[in-house]
Fold this protein.
Amino acid sequence: MMRRPSRHDLRAIWARAFRDPRRERQFLATVAFLVAFGTARAVAHSIKGGGLPWIGDVTIGGRHIHHLVWGIALLLFVGYAWLLEPRERDDPSSHGAARALAALYGIGAALTLDEFALWLNLRDVYWEREGRVSLDAIALFGALALAGFWGGPFFRAVGRELARLARFAFRLAARAFRRASRRP
């Protein structure tokens, strides 16, 4: 007889999948990035199409505030908070804060990169052809985040192996140089 999974089962699965806190933070940042990007696009399309009357542009003093601004503010906040955040092995109680900061980083990156074309052109081209570069930036960052998450252990192992080979080659070259310099 199959039983329904409990939240304790899900916690155990989570704990096994994310033994490394850095990998967990990377996962949370990537998921938050993808969800925030989808949400930002959906809200932007809703505002443009007049789909939901309670969603509209944010304006302060008659000036439209792009979601790029909120993204930059979040990235600045997360960066500063991470400066103050104790390392997890020094303070196990900071694990929740590290998770929250990782998610906020993903959200800030999505809001900022969704308007990458605005930075590049220094004018609002969100709905124009030039605005496509924002989607390219999102795709590139998302692909790198996913590659880092899924391929992280592999890439680290390859990096360690390349470093080992470089050290070996350096020692071999140094030995050959010493032998060559001894000969008259």
User: Anything to note?
Assistant: Residues 7-150 form one domain. The two ends are 84 Å apart (CA to CA). The CA atoms of residues 61 and 155 lie 49 Å apart.
